[in-house]
Write a structure and sequence with these properties.
With 215 residues, the chain is α/β, with parallel strands linked by helices. Helices cover 47% and strands 15% of the residues. It contains 9 helices and 8 strands. A 5-stranded parallel β-sheet has the order 2-3-1-4-8. Strands 6-5-7 form a 3-stranded antiparallel β-sheet. Strand 5 and strand 6 (136-138) form a beta hairpin. It starts with a strand and ends with a helix. It binds adenosine monophosphate. The site of adenosine monophosphate (AMP) has 17 residues, from helix 2 and helix 3.
């Protein structure tokens, strides 16, 4: 099964993709994670992406479609994937169709996480992760049980994304509204969009996604 998780920044795509990986053995393909790794490693892609990401603007379509194609080539044909943060433009949606059909794959579902945008700014600006194992936390909604210590691995190193500032989040929202939301009709005409209320608890959202995938 190949699915897209679609929704604005902070809608919970990464969290839910992680759950689907655990529960269904699917693989999360997050272009944001791949680009952050490329920036950290100082690769050519990373150098192209760094300033755009810091500004909350989109990285060129051919760059992200290229890394998605390369990553898919490393996976077996029966390995189900979750596209998280990709596609984000009409050109990427077209590229994804070509990338999938060239590999004998097709999309089964597009899960649209429907969220209240005002709540998202608070969600995003408060989030941080364990620097060692990547567990996600939040200043207001999910502090570690013991202050300053990761619940999962015991590390005391935490990090925040440099683009999780209020100003950058607003630019990222504008990019979503202007370029990403308009691709939904492409998938609606194919009858594969499942709307899920993204404002519930993580478990509620997960249950709704599971129900949608069973359709
Ligand atoms: P994310 O982790 O999905 O919020 O992505 C973080 C940043 O990476 C975005 O604000 C963009 O600058 C860049 N990015 C991630 N995925 C894409 C994509 N599919 N197309 C263009 N830029 C992307």
């Amino acid at each position: 099964m190949d699915i897209i998780l679609l929704g604005p920044p902070g809608a919970g795509k990464g969290t839910q993709a992680g759950r689907l990986e655990d529960e269904h053995g699917m693989i999360q393909l997050s272009t944001g994670d791949m680009l952050r790794a490329a920036v950290k490693a100082g690769t050519e892609v990373g150098l192209k992406a760094k300033a755009l990401m810091e500004a909350g603007e989109l990285v060129p379509d051919e760059v992200v479609s290229g890394i998605i194609g390369d990553r898919l080539d490393e996976l077996g044909p029966e390995q189900g994937v979750i596209f998280d943060g990709y596609p984000r433009t009409a050109a990427q949606a077209t590229a994804l169709d070509e990338i999938l059909s060239a590999r004998g794959r097709s999309l089964d579902h597009v899960i649209e996480l429907v969220v209240d945008e005002d709540a998202l700014v608070a969600r995003i600006t408060g989030r941080f992760t364990c620097g060692k194992c990547g567990e996600g936390y939040h200043d207001t909604f999910k502090q570690p049980a013991k202050e300053g210590i990761c619940d999962v691995c015991g590390s005391s190193e935490f990090k925040r994304r440099p683009d999780d500032t209020e100003e950058t989040v607003r630019t990222r929202m504008q990019e979503y509204r202007g370029k990403t939301a308009p691709i939904l009709p492409i998938y609606e005409t194919r009858g594969i969009v499942r709307k899920v209320d993204g404002m519930g608890s993580m478990a509620q959202v997960n249950d709704e996604i599971e129900a949608a995938l069973a359709l």
